[in-house]
Design goal:
alpha+beta; eight-stranded antiparallel β-barrel
């Protein structure tokens, strides 16, 4: 059996397990969103710097576009219990919807691939966990950290970073979505980082096979 075939079978098996877990959560807590059931939506601006960071070219740097952000708890646990927070970002460019999903992680060479529960949203770094491929087929990951000195008023103000897996981080841009009176959730807002891959980035085949079954199951819920 070739390495490619083995990777595909492993990804399919893991994807089936994730799909079953999402289904189990949906049966225990029927909801239009088995995961990230409640959140808050903010509107603001996404900026991608033209400074040579991995992925900047593929994202169309220099780029300044309106963005929509949803911040949510993965398991939907109530305060003050810790949970894995998610930051989902959507924007339009070149006539196409583009989604970026980030989850609470670390920034170390290993911890950037590990989920980290926290008590408060945006209280630490968030990352993509799985890599993208750039135009040369090289892997990269994206992360976001709170902007130093930004007000903690419920808005979203994050510095975007990118890196090669295991490499050092580079500034990629910034995401600013102020808190506004009346902001709430949007039950019709759904994100899909596999179908709506940002810019000219690509999702590795094994990562798509791993993620798509659970996304489809969640949407069916």
């Amino acid at each position: 059996m070739s390495t490619t075939t083995g990777t595909t079978r492993t990804a399919d098996a893991a994807g089936a397990v994730l799909r079953a877990l999402v289904g189990a959560v949906d049966r225990l807590r029927p909801s239009p969103r088995p995961l990230h059931p409640r959140g808050v939506v903010r509107h603001g601006t996404l900026l991608v710097d033209d400074d040579g960071a991995p992925g900047a070219l593929e994202l169309g740097a220099p780029l300044v576009v309106p963005a929509v952000v949803r911040v949510s708890r993965a398991a939907g646990l109530p305060d003050p219990l810790p949970d894995v927070f998610g930051v989902a970002v959507r924007w339009e460019a070149d006539g196409r919807t583009q989604d970026l999903l980030l989850s609470g992680t670390g920034l170390g060479r290993l911890t950037r691939f590990v989920l980290v529960p926290r008590r408060r949203p945006l209280d630490g770094p968030h990352g993509t966990l799985m890599p993208f491929l750039d135009g040369e087929g090289r892997a990269l990951v994206v992360a976001a950290v709170p902007t130093p000195g930004a007000p903690r008023d419920g808005g979203v103000d994050l510095v975007l970073l990118s890196a090669r897996p295991g490499g050092r981080w580079h500034r990629l841009g910034r995401l600013v979505c102020p808190a506004r009176p009346g902001d709430g959730d949007d039950p019709h807002l759904r994100f899909d980082p596999v179908r709506h891959v940002p810019g000219a980035l690509r999702v590795p085949g094994w990562a798509a096979r791993l993620r798509l079954p659970s996304y489809r199951r969640a949407r069916a819920g």
